[in-house]
Design brief:
eight-stranded mixed beta sheet; disordered C terminus; 262 residues
């Protein structure tokens, strides 16, 4: 039987309470990356059918952009169970971002032209997913992210669960900032930018709606500006994650050759 978690100290903010129960970290080991790919398989292949289960092996959803991506992972501290993930896709040479491939003419080209000679400072936040076991409260199963307003009363850990998607966006921003790719693009479905705005993160829309696994639109944000202008609690959490990520990546680079870990 699992022991009861150590309760969070009284007086913590919601994000501090979240950080007490859940860990947000770069996925630098092969074992952590496997957790990321397993979450994505359950969400993208099994639950929403965005990718074919037959196209993935070993219960992992992996695509051609993962080798040039940095990944973030949220785990439940007490159990070690993986909860959610996101990645930051970084360009190599003349490669295109996934958004440039999928959004097509819907993307306002002026935003990309602005970085025509400095493609090495941009990135794309993608594959944000929260495992269904940590979303399915009330009506939260209708989205991949949960509902930031759905704060339950069934204990402090459940109260923290709607923050998983928000923490992943913070993690993606912190990771992008640490590696010098603070100019971030993302393809978002309508629910996510609304959710982020409610938390105080205001992405800029940079294109029209288009059809890609449902209605989507392209967005842009300068990560340092977004979080410098965010509410104090969120700004402090971002700065904490950026500091912790920098220390982690100094000890273990993102793209080193890793042995397979089991």
């Amino acid at each position: 039987m699992m022991s009861k978690p150590n309760p969070a100290p009284a007086g913590l903010s919601r994000l501090e309470e979240f950080n007490h129960y859940f860990e947000l970290a770069p996925a630098v080991s092969q074992a952590q990356r496997n957790m990321v790919y397993h979450i994505r398989y359950r969400v993208y292949c099994e639950e929403f059918g965005y990718e074919s289960p037959e196209s993935s092996s070993n219960g992992e959803e992996i695509d051609e952009f993962d080798d040039q991506s940095a990944h973030c992972l949220v785990t439940h501290r007490q159990s070690g169970v993986p909860v959610g993930c996101v990645r930051v896709v970084m360009l190599e040479g003349d490669d295109r971002l996934p958004m440039e491939i999928h959004a097509g003419d819907s993307l306002h080209q002026a935003y990309m032209d602005e970085f025509a000679t400095q493609r090495n400072v941009i990135c794309e936040i993608s594959r944000l997913a929260v495992d269904s076991a940590f979303r399915r409260r009330n009506r939260e199963q209708s989205t991949r992210f949960g509902n930031i307003d759905a704060v339950g009363a069934a204990g402090p850990e459940l109260r923290s669960l709607p923050l998983v998607a928000l923490s992943l966006m913070v993690g993606a921003g912190a990771l992008a900032d640490v590696v010098g790719r603070k100019h971030c693009f993302a393809i978002m479905e309508p629910f996510l930018p609304v959710m982020m705005r409610r938390a105080g993160i205001h992405f800029r829309r940079v294109g029209e709606d288009f059809e890609f696994r449902g209605v989507r639109a392209p967005y842009y944000g300068d990560m340092s500006e977004l979080f410098n202008n965010a509410p104090e609690e969120l700004r402090q959490y971002f700065n904490l994650m950026r500091s912790e990520f920098a220390a982690t990546l100094q000890a273990r680079p993102l793209f080193e050759k890793l042995p397979h870990e089991t």
